[in-house]
Structures are given as C-alpha cells and as structure tokens.
Amino acid sequence: IDLPWPFARVEKVKVSQLREVQLATMRPPEGVRHILWTNDHQVKDETKLLVRTSTSLAQASGLTGSAVDEARSLIVIEVPLHYRVRVNADGSSGLESFEKLAVPGSRDALIRSIAQREILKYLTTLTEDQILSSGRTAANAELKNRISAALDAAGAGVEVTFVAIEGVHPPRGNEGATALSYEQIVSDQVRATTMRQFAELDATAAQIKAAGSVENAQAIVREIDRLSELSARKASEAEINAQQAKLDGLISGAGGEAAQILARAQADRWTRVMAARGRAEAYAGRLSAFQANPDLYMFTMYLDTLRDVVKDARLYIVHDQVHDLRVQTDLKDLGSTVDVFSTENR
C-alpha cells in the first residue's frame, strides 16, 4: 500500500499488552531445577547491591561500636518490572507520551534506567534482614510507588502493574563459600534464638514451680531486693522485721515449693522453740523445789537416779548381817536346748 508522504510505515501498538523488563539479575534458565544459595544459577551477569548489615548480624560477625552502623552486606537481587501503556478512566491513553519517551529500541532501556535508580536509592536504606525476610512485602509496595512516581515524572505514559524483589541471596563466591558463610551466621542466630527461648521456658518453669506463677515470683524477688536494700543501709530493726513479715506472707500465699519449704522451716522452728521452752520450765520447777527443801530435793533426785540405773538390772535384797554374799545360780539358757522332754525344761 502506498502511503502518503512523509509516512513510510505504520506501527500498531497494543495498548493493553504487558511488557516485562528485568531491572537486576536475570532469572535462572529453565535447566536449573534447584535454586539454592550455594548452587550455580548459571547466570553470568549478576546485579550485586550493597545494603546495610543488620545489627545482630554485624555483632555476630565480631563488629563493635561504630563499625556496626558502618557495616555493609553484598546481596544479589532479581527484580522484574511489568508495565503497560496507561489507559485513563475517560478512555484516553498515554500512548502519545509513551511514543515521545524515546525511539522504539530505547524505551525499555530508559524505563529500566529510571527504575534501577529508584531501586538503588531505596534498597540501600534497608538492611539485608528487611530484604531477606518479612520486610520484603513492604519493600515491594514501596518500590512500586517510587518507580511509578518516577516514570510519571518522566512523562513515560505507562502504568506499573507489578514490580517485586523476586529473588535475593548473597553472592555464591568460590564454590559457594560466601553463601555458606552467610548461612552459618544465620544458623548461629537461629540456634542462639532457640537456646534463649528454651532458657526462658526453663526460667518460667522454675518460677512457677517455686512461687506458683511468674507474677508471684517477680513480686517475691522485688521484696527480697527491698529487704537486702534495708539491710545494706542498716535500717531500723522494726523496718527490717516488717519487710521480712511482708516477704514471708508473699511466699506463704504463693503456694509453690518456696511456700512448702517456709512452712516446714516454721514448723521445725516452732518444735524447737517449744522443746527449749519445756526444758526451761522444767529447770525452773526443779530450781524452785531445791530452794524450798534442798535435802529433800537431793534425796529425791538420788532415789530417782538409783531407780533409773537399776530398772533393767537383776536386784537381790539381803540382810546386812549376812557375811557371805556369794550366790549360786544356774545361768543355763533353757531356751537353747532341743530336748523338750527333759525334766530340766519343765
């Protein structure tokens, strides 16, 4: 078809067609079945980005002081961008602006450059934890808003339908050594978190066992600290006794092992006090009896002592005029014989 001058050809553009631009590292080829940090993704040119290192990761790496804030981590990211020519609510489109943006072969490159600038400006303010973990969702939404605003400011006439950090990982390094080192730090963090959680569980169980509940245990510890403070500053005896009574009441009311130990101690103390009081009262009674009649008291104590000494002994009462006190007796044990018909056993 002959076109009127100066037209040479006609290009038809599907306004609703989605276009995709890779803003960072390309996706791994179809032949890569397992996409792990440590395996080869078979991508030659990877986009590496310096981001802030999280405080916990920096400290786990041995950094201290200002070095923690200045630490940076190197990560590889994959960020696909989907866009289409804008269609306004009144039916008009941004096709004219899209055509004026650049020559056909350079439009994607220009859009990629604008979007990459926003990626660098934003992601360098985040930490690698925010990008690798749950913070990625919020980062994706913010990236879409920033890139959309930048393209609108450039008069691109396009609508960003999707942009996200699709893949992110540390550089693989030599034989995956870099990724392995990063995984080691992450696994150490997970192990430390697990150990801390188990320790907290053990502490909670010990508090519940000792005081019935965590709240009771914390209240008792506060009162113990208060009692130690009073003792340290040499408070009055009345204040210390009042604090001790308050502490004993808390422990007794808690119902845990501490209450049981305190109850046993109080019972043992009461038993000892009453035994000592009984001995003191008995001594006071004997002292009164001695002071009333010393001779009678001493004679009575003599007879009591004699009774206690001879109560388990064999006693012979003889006349005091007997000259020969030799006694002949048969000490044979009758129970040891087996001859039950003997006259001696009758």
Question: What's the short story on this structure?
Answer:
With 346 residues, the chain is mainly α.
Strand content: 5-15%
Helix content: 40-55%
DSSP, total strands = 6
Q: List low-confidence stretches.
A: none
SSE order, as H and E? EEHHEEHHHHEEHHHHH
Distance between the first and last residues' Cα: 154 Å
Mean pLDDT: 80
Which value, in Å, is the CA radius of gyration? 49 Å
Q: Major sheet: order of its strands?
A: 1-4-5
Structural class: mainly alpha
Count of helical stretches: 11
Report on this structure.
The protein has 346 residues and is mostly helical. It is 53% helix and 9% strand. The chain has eleven helices and six strands. It has a three-stranded antiparallel β-sheet with strand order 1-4-5, covered by helices on one side. It has a three-stranded antiparallel β-sheet with strand order 2-3-6. The longest helix has 36 residues, at 257-292. It is rod-shaped. The model has no long low-confidence stretch (mean pLDDT 80).
